[in-house]
Amino acid sequence: MTSAPIHALHTRRSMKFLRAPAPRPEELDQMLQAAMSAPDHGALRPWRFKLIRGEAIGRLADMALDAVKRSGDKRMTPEKEKSVREWLAGVPLMIALAQKIDHDNVKIPEQEQLLATGASVMNILNAAHMLGYGAFWSTGLGTYLEPVQEALGFDSLDYRFLGFLAIGTPACAVPPANRPDFREFVSDWTGQPA
């Protein structure tokens, strides 16, 4: 028998196609508070989030797609641009994600700060699912382009930009994911020579 929280973790999956309504303010607060429970060596809390809602999502689309086109990325065809704009038109909430780089910290390696930030995002994804919402972590929309990062206020000297979370109500039924058996990824280490 599986308890409800474990069942929620087993059944969470990414849902790209979303629609309104977005989480209510108190639900969004719960999701963001869940991020604060991420493992975090040194309690640096390196995660940073920017909420993008309403008309700002259209401005995000304009800014990011323009940056992608200016970068010379040949994958941004008119058809792809139309598809991205249609997708974003349905998304009621986007959260820009970044890791703040602590340049003065010599004790906690940067990769541990990055892992803490990823864990905080995973907590948001799990909380969204547990509250009945769909969510999708996207590294599209020019995530790796400096003009996009800077337009969002994440200067690349001080932040590692990690993409966007789209959160909303699932726009369609999503079949359960076919997950692999964990045993394929686990082995014992005995300390004995092989």
Text of the CATH class: Alpha Beta
Under CATH, the topology is which?
Answer: NADH Oxidase
Overall CATH architecture = 3-Layer(aba) Sandwich
- The CATH superfamily bears the name NADH Oxidase
Q: Proportion of β residues?
A: 15-25%
Q: Helical amount among residues, as a percent range?
A: 25-40%
Could you tell me the number of beta strands? 5
* Total separate domains: 1
Ends apart, CA distance between termini: 37 Å
* Overall 3D form: globular
Helical region count?
A: 6
Report on the structure:
The chain is an alpha+beta fold and 194 residues long. The chain has a single domain (15-184), classed as NADH Oxidase, CATH 3.40.109.10. The protein is built from 6 helices and 5 strands. The protein has helices spanning 4-11, 25-35, 55-70, 78-90, 110-130, 146-151, and strands at residues 18-19, 47-53, 93-100, 134-138, 159-170. Strands 1, 2, 3, 4 and 5 form a 5-stranded antiparallel sheet that branches. α2 (25-35) runs antiparallel to α5 and α3 (55-70) packs antiparallel against α4. The longest helix has 21 residues, at 110-130. The protein is globular. It starts with a helix and ends in a 24-residue tail after the last strand. FMN binds at residues 12-14, 41, 137-139. One of its GO terms (molecular function) is oxidoreductase activity. Its cofactor is FMN. Its EC number is 1.-.-.-. Keywords: Flavoprotein, FMN, NAD, NADP, Oxidoreductase.
